[in-house]
Amino acid sequence: MSSSPTRRSPARIASNSNNGASTSNNTPSNSQSATSISNKRALESPGDDGTAAKKACPDDRAIALPFLDMMGTEIVEINVGKGPNQRLFRVYQKRLCDKVPYFQKIFEGGWKESIEKKVTLEDDDPASFDRLLLWVYTGVIPKIEWFDKSGEKLAATRAILNLYVLADKLSLVWLMDKIASEYIDLQAELRFLPGSPHLDLFYTKLSDHMAFRKYAAYCLHYILHGLEQTERNLQIWPATELNQVMADNPTLTLEYLELVQKHPHQERAPEPRTLSRCTFHQHIADEPCTLTGEGDKEVHEEAAEK
Q1: Which of 2, 161, 228, 303 is most buried by its number of CB atoms within 10 A?
Q2: What does the pLDDT read at residue 76?
Q3: Both 234 and 275 in a single domain?
């Protein structure tokens, strides 16, 4: 008697169709196994020691932080002026020290100020320090847009000279030369020459070693020996006022007389606004210009002749 064929269960048929890899209904399929292995590998990956996590979420130190790199995080306090006019400025220490080495010596030199992060500048002008900080943070000197407003020219000149004096105190030669150039450029643009009160300011505000002061002597020389002596010019620069300014400022008179002696007779004095700006710069005569990096400090009188 022949035996009947053995009937195969559906589970075994399915198993055999998958190359006999499994013999039980509870055993996962190949696709399930691949998923499990993948998950297991992820769990057992080097991420367990933090490497994968670092790749997915980079450490803050690996991210470019241009603002913090430029400014730092520490704040210092600077009180400028005295009495009711004193003003408090809170400034990023790193940015200030990078732009003004004078403060680096104060805040990083082991002094009392470096511990307290505070300093007082009683003899300085708060408005000038405010303009200085604009340059520290932006790299640009505030434009003298208000210079051409009626009645404010003398106040503007005073403000500019105060900023120049502050730059000298902080040993910022580049800034001193920049201030001088921009002041003269603006005067040329507005076709303005300093009057007697302005000439007096230059010699009462600025010290002997400041090259910008010479601009007033060159202007006086041009006013008396270069300008046409019209009725209007005689009203703007009356002899009585010029005499008083020269009497009050002997150094101005001396430097003016030296220019007169050096200048050829019967030739008009050079127009100071057309001279090389290096004439009134602080940098040494045989060094390249601090602003352009080119040329020497020369007086191009021939360029001023008209």
Answers
A1: 161
A2: 95
A3: yes
